[in-house]
Design brief:
253 residues; alpha/beta; Rossmann fold; six-stranded mixed beta sheet; four-stranded antiparallel beta sheet; 8 helices
């Protein structure tokens, strides 16, 4: 039986701007199941990215609790949150934050060396992962400005999973990619999830949403609805699309 990896209780997030308060997240109760590919959707300004950052410990809630694998993290200090993120979380963003003055291999190694000591074993692990995401060996010594967007995002995914995180958080990871590269990147996420990796991904794109087995829809800071599917497969894509579109239409998407 699947276990709950993340749980929120009455989660709220409020921002202050020129004396005005903006309530972005409002009393959210969410359970994220281990091994799920969870998709977070909603209109612009609905709180998608804010929720992602709160769940991952990148930002603090204003009120409420967040439990990660049974431990409450919402009261952690900044230093405790930094350690928590390094040990438990991987991150993939629309903007690919690779270090310009480092090669592909070194970009991934830099993110891993803090938590892994055997450098020879680590280098082999990085190389194996780069092969698995389809990044050719002649690119491993290249710098980020010598890569395409799709190639860079593959590096970003390897960097996100190199420390064996319990959850990978992704915020519009295909938003800046062309259609072909987007499909390649989604295939990688799908395969990583198939191996048991928990993923929480924000998207506004239905093609991306189809890869999840659970969709949480936000509206004005609330959970408007959610929908569960079977794990993604290449079969019955049109039927899956119609089912998801029907749910999103019901949500007002």
């Amino acid at each position: 039986m699947s276990s709950i990896i993340l749980r929120t209780e009455k989660l709220c997030k409020t921002f202050s701007n020129d004396g005005m308060q903006q309530h972005v997240l409002k009393n959210m109760d969410i359970d994220i199941i281990e091994g799920d590919f969870t998709i977070i959707m909603g209109a612009s300004g609905s709180g998608k990215s804010t929720l992602l950052y709160a769940l991952s410990g990148m930002d603090r809630p204003t009120l409420g609790k967040i439990q990660f694998d049974g431990t409450e993290i919402s009261k952690y200090t900044n230093d405790q949150l930094a350690v928590f993120r390094r040990k438990n979380c991987g991150f993939v963003f629309q903007s690919i934050y690779l270090l310009d003055n480092m090669s592909v291999l070194d970009n991934v190694l830099t993110g891993a060396l803090v938590s892994q000591k055997n450098s020879k074993v680590l280098v082999e692990k990085v190389k194996n992962l780069l092969r698995q995401v389809g990044l050719k060996e002649n690119l491993w010594s290249k710098f980020p400005n010598q890569l395409s967007g799709g190639e860079s995002q593959r590096v970003g995914i390897v960097r996100a999973i190199i420390n064996n995180p319990k959850v990978v958080f992704a915020d519009e990871p295909t938003g800046a990619l062309n259609s072909a590269s987007s499909t390649d990147v989604l295939d990688i996420f799908t395969e990583v999830n198939r191996r048991g990796q928990s993923i929480v991904m924000v998207t506004h794109d239905i093609k991306t949403a189809l890869r999840g087995n659970r969709i949480i829809y936000l509206k004005d800071g609330y959970i408007s609805g959610e929908f569960r599917l079977d794990k993604y497969s290449n079969k019955n894509i049109e039927e899956r699309r119609e089912t998801v579109q029907s749910f999103l239409k019901e949500m007002g998407w």
